[in-house]
Amino acid sequence: MPDEPTSPELEKLRFLYRVQCSQLAQTERWIEAELAKVRERASRRPLPEGPAFVLSYLRVGGKASADSVHLGDCRMASHHTKPLSQEQARQAITSGGLRACEICRPDSELGVLE
């Protein structure tokens, strides 16, 4: 094979081509790594939602005593709570003799008038 003609300018351009190919390969690796991160984040399941209603307990004489009904995310509920279904919360407020929290108003959410 005969030698190709060359020039200093042609050698510079070939060098530039090799550098750009290397940079393109690096960029492609970065893209793949970022795609893997995005796919991994998308595959995570969202956190389960908490209960819609909770029964708050207070300690009276060393025993737990049901105190009030709250919305599940109410900060006024004590640390000792029990999840309630919508029907259980409605029953606790209407016939269970428990009060509804005056801050989060679960009675309004349930459509109960006290």
From TrEMBL:
Q: Which InterPro entries match?
A: DUF6233 (IPR046200)
Task: Return the Pfam families for the record.
Answer: DUF6233
Superkingdom? Bacteria
Q: What's the protein name? A: Uncharacterized protein
